[in-house]
Write a structure and sequence with these properties.
A four-stranded antiparallel sheet has the order 1-2-3-4. It has four helices and four strands. The chain is an alpha+beta fold and 129 residues long.
């Protein structure tokens, strides 16, 4: 069978295609990974949080959760540690005993409750400090 474009046997194109595929495969194996450190942003966040705790900039999470349970009791659903401006903040989502979804922001260095905002408050625009 002949190629309609160049009038050569189609085996010629098949061999060239196979050779090109083999070259691409070899190049892919030899290429360095796309992320040089091998870590994603999630790993980097954990490293930053660990370093902040070790440096005394942030209280360990168990100490913060103990204080939180005294002030805003509930089942913790999610915890985030963020740096806002020059201050570390724990943002904790919890489900209160009354079944209300609540977001609490705490100063990560002192565990001081900065803001409590429930799901109902978000709908009405209210916020507790």
């Amino acid at each position: 069978m002949l190629c309609l474009a160049c009038r050569t046997p189609t085996r010629h194109h098949t061999a060239r295609l196979a050779l090109a595929a083999l070259a691409l495969w070899a190049a892919a194996l030899a290429a360095p990974p796309a992320v040089a450190s091998g870590k994603d942003d999630h790993d980097h966040d954990h490293d930053r949080a660990r370093q902040a705790v070790q440096a005394g900039q942030v209280l360990p999470l168990p100490a913060v959760l103990e204080r939180l349970q005294r002030e805003v009791p509930g089942q913790v659903l999610e915890v985030e540690l963020e740096q806002e401006r020059d201050r570390w903040i724990y943002e904790i989502k919890l489900l209160t005993p009354a079944g209300q979804l609540t977001k609490v922001k705490l100063d990560a260095r002192t565990a001081e409750v900065l803001r409590v905002k429930s799901r109902d408050d978000q709908l009405t625009g209210r916020e507790h400090r």
